[in-house]
Amino acid sequence: MKPMLKSVADTTPVPDAAPVQIQVRGVEKTFAVGAQKIVALQNIDLDIRKGEFICLLGPSGCGKSTLLNAVAGFQPPTKGTVTVDGRTITEPGPDRGMVFQEYALFPWMTVAQNVAFGLEIKGMSKAEIAEKVEWLLQKLHLQDFRNRFPKDLSGGMRQRVAIARVLALDSPILLMDEPFGALDALTRRTLQDELLRIWEEVGKTILFVTHSIEESIYLADRIIVMTYRPGTIKRDVVVDMPRPRDGSAPEFNRLKRELSQMVMEEQQRFSQDEIRSVTAD
Amino acid sequence: MSQAKPRFSPAAVARGALVPVLAIVLWQALSSSGLINQVVLPSPVAVVERWWAYLLPTEPYDPAQSSWILWALSGEMLFDAWSSLYRVVLGFAVGAGLALPLGLAMGGNPRVYALFDPLMQVLRPIPPIAYIPLAILWFGLGNPPAVFLIAIGAFFPVLMNTIAGVRHVDGIYLRAARNLGAGRLTMFVRVILPAATPYILAGARIGIGTAFIVVIVSEMIAVNSGLGFRILEAREFMWSDKIIAGMFTIGLLGLAIDIGMNRLNNHLLRWHRGLEN
């Protein structure tokens, strides 16, 4: 497929001179499902620069979450390495804060306690924790909810708490696994804008998994489109549009069409596979 | 009660009281008819009178002897109820106090589990009542065998639920905590233990229910006080009204324990979803 746009390139141009922070080299991940061996990731090479906002885009089963988990250190790759600032990743750590789709708040802790938890683990003093928690609650508009338990919050509010909780860690890298996937469209847009605002303010590297094409164009500096089984990088697309991006702009729509085509090719392979597996049973 | 929930509206109270009132009327009619011997089935009035007498102090009030409150609480029933409650609480504390750490260790560590599980599986089906001969042989009479039996009754429900609770902790909490940098101790104390509390408290509730059954049985055998002892003693004298009055008191104490546990549950699980309230 030929690139249709100047802004869509097969090779990654260097947006600025920022150093590479996350380096993925020859990563392969296989799972055994019964007697079947599934290649979730194959030959993944990826460089992510400090401060970049990267979206991993693809249909279900393309390995985008597996790749994120490899960077997070939850699932080490079968082959290859992931390094962050030159260190090989072997386990999860607070330098790579993770936001989960299912929020993963601790239901027995209040909003403020959830946000404070990572700081307590770090061994910060009570006064420092209180100050930082307050600042984060203000930043994410949670100050009126500090003593609520997660069960009393809407999905959007819960995800705000989860974001505040990882921001508290001051980790240079944020990993986000379809964080807004379960939210309604309006809440989703609000949180996307807040995430961009925070990102621009604190300058973190963000690796964001999504299956929403629009979301990826709205947010990312670069979109990594992934293939369905084996999961490889199909295309590395630079989104060169000023923010805030206008979803009705012709440039936005052209990119959307182009990405849709790529994602749909993979989605079809996923659907065929699913139908096959059902008829085989 | 809040006004939003008319749980005690007059209509609801009337509906709730209908069957009990009918049952009492039928019972009174049966005893008044003279068809049934008063010793076999005393009338409700006789039972209530006996219950009242059982509640009230046996000695007349003497200001020189004790304070007014102590005198008011000196009735036989309150003493019996207190004795039973004391045994339940002590036995439960011993049983649950042993089961909780063992359950946490077994749930959290497969090697500890492999070590202890066979023994637990063999001991668990033995009803606490079956330990009575051994309890008397080991501890003689009095509180020690009763507390031993109650502790056994409370032990297994708390143990099994603690193991299940630790094992059923949602992996997402563990991942989130590891991501936040939690070490093993923090993970256990701040994440696994609170996540397992709904299970543990459900086990505690079953355990205290079992403890309450066992206390009545053990009082019929090993001790000379308590509600279980009192109803057995009443049988010796053919005081059927006192037997029923005692049973009624046992029911009230069980209800009070259950309400207390429920309150504790609601407080400790105030963060929990799907709480009946």
Please describe what this structure looks like.
The complex is a heterodimer of chains A (281) and B (277). Helix content of chain A is 37%, strand content 24%. Chain A contains seven helices and ten strands. Chain A has helices at residues 64-72, 111-122, 126-139, 155-167, 185-202, 213-219, 250-280; strands at residues 20-33, 36-49, 53-57, 79-84, 87-88, 96-99, 173-177, 205-210, 222-226, 233-238. In chain A, helix 2 (111-122) packs across helix 3 and helix 6 packs antiparallel against helix 7 (250-280). Chain A is globular and about 55 Å long. With 277 residues, chain B is mostly helical. Chain B folds into two domains: 1-36; 68-268, MetI-like (MetI-like fold, Orthogonal Bundle), CATH 1.10.3720.10. In chain B, 74% of the residues lie in helices and 0% in strands. Chain B is globular. The model of chain B has no long low-confidence stretch (mean pLDDT 91). Chain A binds chain B through residues 72, 74, 91-94, 96-98, 100, 102, 104-110, 117-118, 121-122, 149-151, 165-166, 169, and chain B through 172-173, 175-183, 186, 190-191, 194-195, 197, 270-273. Chain A: Pfam families: ABC_tran. Chain A: Keywords: ATP-binding, Nucleotide-binding, Transport. Chain A: InterPro entries: AAA+_ATPase, ABC_transporter-like_ATP-bd, ABC_transporter-like_CS, ABC_transporter_ATP-bind, P-loop_NTPase.
Could you name the key traits of this structure?
heterodimer; A: 281 residues; alpha/beta; Rossmann fold; 2 domains; 37% helix; disordered N terminus; B: 277 residues; mainly alpha; MetI-like fold; 11 helices; ATP binding (chain A); ATP hydrolysis activity (chain A); ATP-binding (chain A); AAA+_ATPase (chain A)
